[in-house]
Amino acid sequence: MTAVHALIHLHDFDDGSADFKLIGVFSSPERAAQAQAVTAELPGFRESPDGFLVVPLEVDHGPAADGLPMDLHLLFRTLEEPGHGEEIVILGAFRSEEQAHAAASAYHEGPPEAELEVSPVDLDERTWTDGFFTWYDEE
Questions:
Q1: 19-78 pLDDT, tens per residue?
Q2: What is the 3-state secondary structure (H, E, C) of the chain?
Q3: Which residues pair with 79 in a beta bridge?
Q4: How far apart are the C-alpha atoms of 55 and 1, rounded to whole Å?
Q5: Measured between alpha carbons, how far apart are the two ends of the chain, in Å?
Q6: What integer pLDDT is reported at residue 100 of this predicted model?
Q7: How far is CA 130 from CA 64, 113, 122, 134, 136, in A?
Q8: Are strands 71-81 and 18-26 parallel, antiparallel or unpaired?
C-alpha cells in the first residue's frame, strides 16, 4: 500500500473540549512539514503551535495509474461527546468515492451513534488556508 500524510491541528480548550482541523493530505512528510510551516504563521495556529500532528494513512488498493491520484477520499468517524465537543477519527484514505463509501458500509466498529462521512481532498493542497480565533462567551 501507498502512504499519504494527513496534517491536522488539534486545539485544546480550557473546558477540556478540543477542535480538529484537517490542514491537508500530502504525498510526503516533507510536503506536510512545508504546509505546517505556512499554516503555523496564521492567527490561532501561531498561538498553539504544539497542536500540529502528521498522521500517516495507507491508501487502499484499487485501480490506479502509476503513483497516487490527485484527488483522494477520506473516511471520517465523528462522535459528539457532550461537554467535550466532537471526537473525529480518520478511518482511511481511498482512491475513489465508491471505495470510501464501500468501506463506510462495511465499518461496524465503534459506537453506533457515531456518524461516518466521506470527504474529498486534493493531494498536496491545504484544505484549511485561514487562521482562526477562539470565542469565549462571557455569561
A1: 889 999 999 999 999 999 999 999 999 989 999 999 999 998 655 545 666 789 999 999
A2: CEEEEEEEEEEECCCCCEEEEEEEEECCHHHHHHHHHHHCCCCCCCCCHHHEEEEEEEECCCCCCCCCCCEEEEEEEEEEECCCEEEEEEEEEECCHHHHHHHHHHCCCCCCCCEEEEEEEEECEECCCCCCCCCCCCC
A3: 87
A4: 15
A5: 51
A6: 94
A7: 32, 31, 17, 14, 20
A8: unpaired
Between CA 48 and CA 45 the distance in angstroms is: 5
Give which of 1, 20, 25, 9 is closest to 120, Cα–Cα. 25
Diameter over CA atoms, the chain: 56
Instruction: Give me the amino acid identity at 51.
Output: G
State the amino acid at position 77 in one-letter form: R
Query: Which residues, listed in sequence order, are joined to residue 86 by a DSSP beta bridge?
Result: 80
Only one residue has cell 477520499, namely 73
Grid coordinates belonging to 96: 475513489
The amino acid sitting at 80 is E
